[in-house]
Amino acid sequence: MRDILAPDGTIYVHCDWRVSGYLRLVLNELFGGFITEISWQKSRSVKSQSNHFSNIKDSIFIYSRNPGKYVFDPQYVPKNEKLLETPFFNDNPLAANFTGECTWYCWGRAREKTNTNDLPTSDAGNWFSQASGFYKITGDPISNSIACFSGGHVVFVEEVCNGTVYFSEANYYSTGDSRRSNGQYEVPPNGTDGQIKSATISAFKTRSPGGYQGCIVL
After folding, report:
1. Do 152 and 209 form a contact (C-beta atoms < 8 A)?
2. What is the spatial distance between Cα 193 and Cα 89, in angstroms, rounded to a whole number?
3. Degrees (nearest 5) of the Cα angle 104, 194, 75?
4. Which is more confidently placed, 132 or 46?
5. Less Cβ crowding at N or C end of the chain, within 10 Å?
6. Domain count, the chain
7. Are residues 60 and 97 in the same domain?
8. In angstroms, rounded to a whole number, what is the distance separating the alpha carbons of residues 8 and 28?
9. 103-126 burial string, b = 16+ CB within 10 Å, else e?
10. Within this chain, do residues 91 and 191 fall inside the same structural domain, yes or no?
11. 114 and 140 within one domain
């Protein structure tokens, strides 16, 4: 295996916890050129009936014949012009004037995941009251819902599991961040906006701006 690897090539070896210790010793003997180990989280959470620590990750060992001369290709893809055809732009009524805002993001994400197309198009501070007339409202966040905050912010709740809320949003900056005062934002997937974040249910409800009102169930 080592003999057929190019002088500037690398090899990625994927294994689980049962053989990772032994395999690392073998690879050290064969290649010697250890570069790094990638830990891949193969499961987000343990089952509710689990009574022990679960094995939720695998290992990927990266080796090269010449650790200082191997080729590393940056992980990126060319800009996809078809992005304009996604639910964030194609039929999003907020795209014309509010691209990058939290309402634009939640409208597009809801369309993308649940095919919903009749959410409010007003300021985020009005979403909760406007949607309560024709959507189910819940006090606690649940999967595939939109959390509303009285200070004028909406957040898409991706999943709720074992007391943890996984969510995504746009145009949100914490108190004290200078970008918050001048209205700067980054369009997903750049920066932190649009990325999956997590918080306990209690911590999620106390996020600013304003007070937590509840969730619009999609």
Report:
1. yes
2. 16
3. 135
4. 132
5. N
6. 2
7. no
8. 17
9. bbbbbbbbbeeeebeebbbeebbe
10. yes
11. yes
Paired tokens of 115: 């095919």
Q: Is the separation of the CB atoms in 12 and 40 below 8 Å?
A: no
Statement to judge: residues 43 and 108 lie in one domain: no
| pLDDT for position 197 | 85
Note the pLDDT of residue 188: 39
> Domain range for residue 151?
81-217
**Do 29 and 56 form a contact (C-beta atoms < 8 A)?**
no
Same domain, 125 and 209: yes
Q: Tokens standing for 110?
A: 């809801």
Percent of residues, the chain, with pLDDT higher than 90: 39
Query: Of 26, 30, 31, whose CA–CA distance to 15 is shortest?
Result: 26
- CATH number for position 151: 3.90.1720.10
List, in order, residues 6 or more apart from 49 with CB less than 8 Å away: none
Average pLDDT over residues 62-79: 77
Q: Quick one: 101 and 205 in the same domain?
A: yes
